[in-house]
Amino acid sequence: MAKWVYMFTEGNATMRNLLGGKGANLAEMTNLGLPVPQGFTVTTEACTQYYEDGRQINDEIMGQIMEAIDKMEGITGKKFGDKENPLLVSVRSGARASMPGMMDTILNLGLNEEVVETLSKASGNPRWAWDCYRRFIQMFSDVVMEVGKKYFEELIDKMKADRGVKQDVELTAEDLKELANQFKAEYKEKIGADFPSDPKEQLMEAVKAVFRSWDNPRANVYRRDNDIPYSWGTAVNVQMMAFGNMGDDCGTGVAFTRDPATGENGLFGEFLTNAQGEDVVAGVRTPMHISEMEEKFPEAFVQFKQVCETLEKHYRDMQDMEFTVEHGKLYMLQTRNGKRTAKAALKIACDLVDEGMRTEEEAVAMIDPRNLDSLLHPQFDAAALKAATPMAKALGASPGAACGKIVFTADDAVEWAARGEKVVLVRLETSPEDITGMKSAQGILTVRGGMTSHAAVVARGMGTCCVSGCGDITMDEANKKFTLAGKEYHEGDCISLDGSTGNIYDGIIPTVDATIAGEFGRIMGWADKYRTMKVRTNADTPADAKKARELGAEGIGLCRTEHMFFEGNRIDAFREMICSETVEEREAALAKILPEQQGDFEKLYEALEGNPVTIRFLDPPLHEFVPTEEEDIKKLADAQGKTVEQIKAIIDGLHEFNPMMGHRGCRLAVTYPEIAKMQTSAVIRAAINVKKAHPDWNVKPEIMIPLVGDIKELKYVKKFVVETADAEIAAAGSDLEYEVGTMIEIPRAALTADDIAKEADFFCFGTNDLTQMTYGFSRDDAGKFLDAYYDAKIFENDPFAKLDQTGVGKLMNMAIELGKPVNPNLHVGICGEHGGDPSSVEFCNKIGLDYVSCSPFRVPIARLAAAQAAI
Ligand code: PEP
Ligand code: MG
């Protein structure tokens, strides 16, 4: 019989896959002898089984849960539904990888009309007992039965208004009792049945709800963003309740062993007296700093500090903990490696090495490469910032600078961003449903909540700027307006946020590119030491190339030459080239372009200082360049000595039904060899000049022919290239060497790579096109239907962002295995978008690529991912 349920005493930290992070760590803390309210974990495999069984908990799992309850009753001396000493539990999700706020939690489970009376009498604290009960009804109704939270919140607001009080804590036991009754009536009205009173029935429903929450939309979005497979499932933790809301000698808190924003070593966190955990995390009340706990609960605080030390030493990483103090006694509810900003991640990793807790390799492995993005994101322009005065200040919850138009709902954020607006999402507080809206926004501003509130944690994870807890705002969400610093702001008004300082500014403050410093260099140095794969960049301009070099690129893996034709008035000559009807006409136009291209290439070689540069010959369909405006058509006609009608006829002739599979790539060179010849001359002349100026640099052009599917295409084009190049080199009396290679971006090229390798000095996988043609998905249109694919669980990720290792990857592997034996000197890289995606980089390392090439800002990410793949 499979084992589906583990008591905390039966597990340990290595069982994360089976018990989820929370369950494994609760077991580990139990083993360490820390004060953990006892309970059990229903495994992630039980979750997977629940889905396999058609969303049912089977008898075997159910039986094991019931046994575990018996054991728990034995350990705690309390009993479910007991009139003397009732057991109350929390039911919480816990996946392998932490997914803060994405899934569901239910507290105070086990309460019913009789139990609440018992608790009320036994504790001598009826207010607390009724507060627990009304919270439970509220959470159970919302999470398990999906009765919207808002109905209950309205009832609370009404009760507070009736009683003339502002805070929940000012409501009396009688008020709360009445609220509980109102809640149950609401439940009955919405569900059509009485609120369940049997604790075991409540528990089974709650476990199902947690399993079900694995598949809720926000969890699906979060998983997609964080590369967490759907197949993992979530565990469920059932734990005896410890009460932080039993009075003023009780409380609850969330704390980090180091500052999650800066990485500074020292306790950092928040605490609320007379409250339950959800109050801190949900950001409903703004909590006090953890240091104030020392005054209120000196003994528990000393003990807590010891626990922090024990846990950090044990896990050798910064911990994020949840705890409760019940009548002055400390209970640990959770520990995990804390989420942190990129800046903090780098500092913590370096400090842990300096403190002797981690090796360099481990430090490199600790950093999530995607997190570096936030270091590379815009900051405010310093001069503009100096001139600006903040109108308010709140918590700098997630760093970076943001400016944009105010929107008040997540949906509006998505909609406005889709039409190209930059938006700042302003909310009373964010809830997990807001995740897509948060993603669409440049920044997030919340009225309530602390550094550990949902908005703060999620924004930090996304690397999106967030300022939280701005209590100075008087919010009117219903009418989409708020007042701050004496000014009324409406939807569409502009605002700027500094997520590092928490400053809020009126209007737009321009942003500038990020500069990276501090521990970044140290970690990158270690990454470079341990990685074996090179990292190049996709750069078309000298400025991009320079930026990429600063970020550590070791060469250019792809220069898309077509991007050079839009500069200045070059497009005119290019259009003349396209609309030529004879070779002579075309050559005349190309002659105008040649010096421009040569100049560009010289600058690229200069910027790369002898590092390799791969120049890809013209690739896109010609119709992308033709004029559409009447005025431009006339200008072209005049320049060509043709009539407007003639030009229009040529343009019509260029129309293609399926341009991505049309007249592009090496097909252009086959039809117009003079284009490839011109580009060869430009590359070779540029290289000769730069080599002359810098004899010590290793200038060796790599000419790359795109979209080859047949060896004969490559042979045909290569012939012109080699003839032209050799003639240029001979004429200059130079000894320049060069290579001619090809992109592998058509499945047939991969399938016949043994042939192609005979002619190619190198392969570079163009995985954008290779994905497009392997799946038969248009890379420009797939976005329209991918959402349906995610919903239907056909895809978990966009295959244009994260490499499909099973299919496209198999073709890549095949191409390497076929190509290398034929040409042992063949070097192989990737320059599709996947070259900057960490999991794809890992795959590239595994199949033996020499380098990955990605956009400049993703170079550090690729360097780190390559090191992690090698470690
Ligand atoms: C590719 O197809 O992956 C590639 C790099 O080329 P492009 O995106 O220019 O088609
Ligand atoms: Mg391509």
UniProtKB/TrEMBL annotation:
Superkingdom in the source lineage: Bacteria
Keyword Oxidoreductase: no
PROSITE patterns hit by this protein: PEP_ENZYMES_PHOS_SITE
Family annotation (InterPro entries): ATP_grasp_subdomain_1, PEP-util_enz_mobile_dom, PEP_util_AS, PEP_util_C, Phosphohistidine_dom_sf, PPDK_AMP/ATP-bd, Pyruvate_phosphate_dikinase, Pyrv/PenolPyrv_kinase-like_dom
Listed cofactors: Mg(2+)
Limits of the PEP-utilising enzyme mobile domain: 421-502
Keyword Kinase appears in the UniProt entry: yes
The enzyme's E.C. designation: 2.7.9.1
UniProt cross-references to PANTHER family, sorted A to Z: PHOSPHOENOLPYRUVATE DIKINASE-RELATED, PYRUVATE, PHOSPHATE DIKINASE 1, CHLOROPLASTIC
Family assignment from sequence similarity: Belongs to the PEP-utilizing enzyme family.
Entry protein name: Pyruvate, phosphate dikinase
Source lineage: Bacteria, Bacillati, Bacillota, Clostridia, Lachnospirales
